[in-house]
Design goal:
Pfam families: NIPSNAP. The chain is α+β, with helices and mostly antiparallel strands. It is about 40% helix and about 30% strand. It contains three helices and four strands; from the N terminus they run E-H-E-E-H-H-E.
Length: about 110
């Protein structure tokens, strides 16, 4: 079965990189795991730009949509987001790109 991948690029508000990394490390990744969401890999920008990059892996588009709907409605996530953004929003912009592996590439 061909998996699909989603590249997510988060542009972070100035001065909030530590806050977003802490939120992922202490809360978000655990919520993802509990909801069956699979993070394929995760990066911070090497040049110092306020950006995070990560790739999620799914069986199909329906699984992706179902998982993100569950995440957005998750009471733990709602509370974590509320508390972490008491001094203002952390994420300025989210870019989402859906991808599938090129048929000529074998890892």
């Amino acid at each position: 079965m061909d998996m699909i991948f989603e590249l997510r690029i988060y542009t972070i508000h100035e001065g909030k990189m530590e806050a977003i990394q802490k939120r992922f490390e202490q809360h978000t990744l655990g919520i993802f795991e509990r909801l069956g969401m699979q993070v394929y890999d995760f990066w911070v920008d090497e040049t110092g730009l306020p950006k995070l990059y990560y790739v999620m892996q799914y069986k199909n588009r329906e699984e992706r949509d179902r998982q993100w709907d569950a995440f957005r409605q998750d009471p733990e996530w709602i509370e974590v987001k509320r508390k972490s953004e008491q001094s203002g929003p952390i994420v300025a912009k989210i870019e989402e790109m859906m991808m599938k592996r090129a048929p000529f590439f074998r890892s």
